[in-house]
């Protein structure tokens, strides 16, 4: 159970009222955007459940208020067990950052192995759905009721790159999931938003600076931005009161191909 860390005035002006730290779950927390966002949340005083496939990178960033939970987000039994542990450890869940995702190699659809398609759907879509399902259940039944879910979309939720049908299809589907959760969450004070990210510097996007296939089938390098800009954007979304919501945010390297990508 989360321990109180601050005090403040109560609604009737009496002193003190004990305030507990806000709590969050970050999936794909061991690297890239998930790592940067987890660090930003912890620096801001949040308690964070760090979820990822490998425990070592999670332990590398965990502080005393973090919980490390190795978890395969594609396995419903494992996901439910992870969120049950989070409920026991935190008692109340304020936010899920649904971030875990994978790229597949760029190919035209006829050259894409079916296993690549299934892997992308399992992690990027099914994994996000399973984690949202578990978080929504806790937020709906906890006291006080409510919470926030932030889905990691992508520039590819709007426009594709060449040869990206598995990734692009899953990210378009994330937009549908975000809208559906926003609607279904209204009666339970559960807000849902989406952050669409373009060219944040990480291991997954290292090829951008080296050169990547463009819509005209030429290969050119693209600008990238510091991943910390994504982390601060997620933190802003997370710290809004539940009567306000960033429904969709796009944060991207300013000069990357996006508007008129094709």
Detail the topology: elements first, then pairings.
Layout lengths: L5 E3 L8 E3 L3 E5 L4 H12 L3 E6 L2 H7 L5 E4 L5 H15 L4 E4 L15 H28 L5 E6 L12 H21 L4 E9 L7 H5 L1 E2 L5 E2 L7 H11 L9 E5 L10
Parallel strand pairs: 3-4, 3-6, 4-5, 6-7, 7-8, 8-11
Antiparallel strand pairs: 1-2, 9-10
Helix pairs in contact: 1-7, 3-4, 4-5
Description:
There is one protein chain. The protein is of the alpha/beta class. The chain has a single domain (17-252), classed as Rossmann fold (3-Layer(aba) Sandwich), CATH 3.40.50. 38% of the residues lie in helices and 19% in strands. A seven-stranded parallel beta sheet has the order 5-4-3-6-7-8-11, sandwiched between helices. The protein is globular, with a radius of gyration of 19 Å. The N and C termini lie far apart (51 Å).
Strand content: 15-25%
Looking at the overall shape, the CATH architecture is 3-Layer(aba) Sandwich
Radius of gyration: 19 Å
Which fold name fills CATH's third level, the topology? Rossmann fold
Element order: H for helix, E for strand: EEEHEHEHEHEHEHEEHE
Number of domains: 1
User: Could you name the ranges where pLDDT drops below 50 across 5 or more consecutive residues?
Assistant: 1-8
What's the rounded overall pLDDT mean?
90
Task: Give the CATH class.
Answer: Alpha Beta
State the secondary-structure class: alpha/beta
Roughly how much helix do the residues carry, as a percent range?
A: 25-40%
Largest sheet: 7 strands, parallel
**Through-space gap between termini:** 51 Å
Q: How is the largest sheet built, in terms of strand order?
A: 5-4-3-6-7-8-11
